[in-house]
Write a structure and sequence with these properties.
The chain has 317 residues and is α/β, with parallel strands linked by helices. It has one domain: Spore Coat Polysaccharide Biosynthesis Protein SpsA, Chain A (Alpha-Beta Complex), CATH 3.90.550.10. Helices cover 37% and strands 17% of the residues. The chain is built from 13 helices and 12 strands. The protein has an 8-stranded mixed β-sheet with strand order 3-2-1-4-11-5-12-9. The protein is globular. About 3% of the residues have low confidence.
Length: 317
């Protein structure tokens, strides 16, 4: 059996081949080009979209080791075909004791375009959603990651799908949970790259792609930090998934979503420099499946029964 990870790692170990792959597969942001666009924006030579959606927030978080590169993510969020009411970057006060004095000036420069920095306690990756749900309970919140460069119509695709299906949690990177003999298969064996735009209690939102949430879609326990730190401390996407289905809400993947990931720093994401990413901890260490089971056991969730009902529903359509 072909080991794709070994083949990938072998190719990545040769710089010329690696850079060619990054270029062909569009996996890398070329920062010099984006820097020129940022400069044009700050000088007033580049205009942002005038179409702004009230009651909509794009929310993300970061930490000191990535803060110097976050400006590229923020620029991609400002350069969307539609703009939210707010773009909020949540930062932990304990990680930036001097607050804005610890932040790059070129990141702070975006504040004149509706970009906001908010300070909160260190909730790890949960910072990208929990504080926004608490502070803006009546807003729709789309989550983003601090290491991705988003295509210009990324937010528009999410919002248009939401308007068409207002009772669903909408996501850009849907996969589908699969079971065998009543047991949930490991995450890497789930059905990925779902492009049909279907809704299901078994649709799972992959982190980073972008997910539209609202408090009304989520279980009442969603913001209980003692619970999520105990059950899924390193897997916010696991916790949020179960908060959705425990409310009885279905997730819906966007039709023809964006699966190709353009990294701000692909060298870090592919393990080519020192440091760990959250995904490498969760998947490589097997913690994602463990945290998934923790939440199932706590709420006594019968995914097998849900699976049977969802399959029966699909066949009846």
């Amino acid at each position: 059996m072909i080991n794709r990870n070994k083949i990938r790692n072998a190719l990545l170990s040769f710089p010329p081949i690696r850079e060619l792959l990054f270029f062909i597969l569009q996996k890398k942001v070329y920062k010099g080009s984006v820097d020129k666009k940022i400069s044009a924006l700050l000088k007033g030579k580049l205009k942002l979209s005038e179409m702004k959606i009230d009651n909509l927030i794009v929310s993300l978080t970061s930490f000191p080791q990535r803060i110097d590169e976050v400006k590229y993510v923020i620029y991609s969020l400002l350069d969307q075909t539609i703009l939210p009411e707010k773009i909020i970057l949540w930062l932990a006060e304990s990680q930036f004791p001097n607050k804005e004095q610890d932040l790059p000036q070129d990141l702070l420069a975006f504040k004149e375009f509706g970009f906001t920095i908010e300070w909160c306690e260190d909730l790890r990756s949960y910072k990208k959603l929990i504080p926004a749900l608490e502070l803006f309970p009546d807003h729709y919140v789309v989550t983003a990651d601090d290491d991705l460069y988003y295509k210009r119509d990324w937010l528009e695709k999410i919002w248009v799908t939401h308007l068409k299906y207002p009772n669903n949690v909408v996501c850009h990177r849907p996969s589908k949970i699969l079971l065998k003999n009543g047991d949930v298969l490991p995450k890497e064996q789930w059905k990925g790259n779902i492009r049909t735009g279907e809704e299901s209690l078994l649709i799972y939102a992959g982190s980073g792609g972008g997910v539209l949430y609202h408090r009304k879609y989520l279980h009442k326990d969603v913001c209980k930090k003692d619970m999520f730190f105990n059950l899924a401390p390193h897997a916010d996407d696991v916790w949020f998934y179960f908060m959705v289905i425990q409310k009885g809400t279905k997730m819906r993947g966007i039709k023809n979503p964006y699966f190709n990931t353009k990294w701000i720093n692909p060298y870090r994401e592919y393990g080519l420099i020192n440091g760990h990413t959250l995904s490498s901890i969760n998947i490589g260490g097997g913690l994602n499946d463990l945290q998934f089971k923790n939440v199932i056991d706590h709420y006594n969730i019968d995914l097998h029964s849900i699976f049977i009902k969802e399959v029966a529903h699909e066949h009846s359509i």
